[in-house]
Fold:
Amino acid sequence: MPKLSFGEDRQIPIRGKRYELIHRAVHLTPVPRTKHQLVVHNLNMSLGSSVHKKKLAEVWETSLAVRLAEDRALQPDLVFISNAPAGIIQENWIECAPGIVV
Structure:
């Protein structure tokens, strides 16, 4: 597998697969199972409702890439982004570490 940068890995056709970029290498991640998705959804509902009521942050169930460096981008299940660093939200990815990732 060739070594890729973040911009280069964005060109890979997704075709229903999840992958992460770690030290410029692409790693396929398994599709989450139903129990896993239920836990993520319940966490989002619990955390998200109180956060949204108080307008503290955005909480997303997502498979968006979180770009940590040019050679590293992960796809967490849940992302918590406080209101302070709102500029990190890009069109197709999150640009640096959010406050909480699951």
Observations:
- The chain has two helices and eight strands.
- The CA atoms of residues 41 and 61 lie 7 Å apart.
- Strands lie at 18-22, 25-29, 57-61, 65-69, 72-74, 78-82, 93-95, 100-101.
- Residues 34-53 form the longest helix (20 residues).
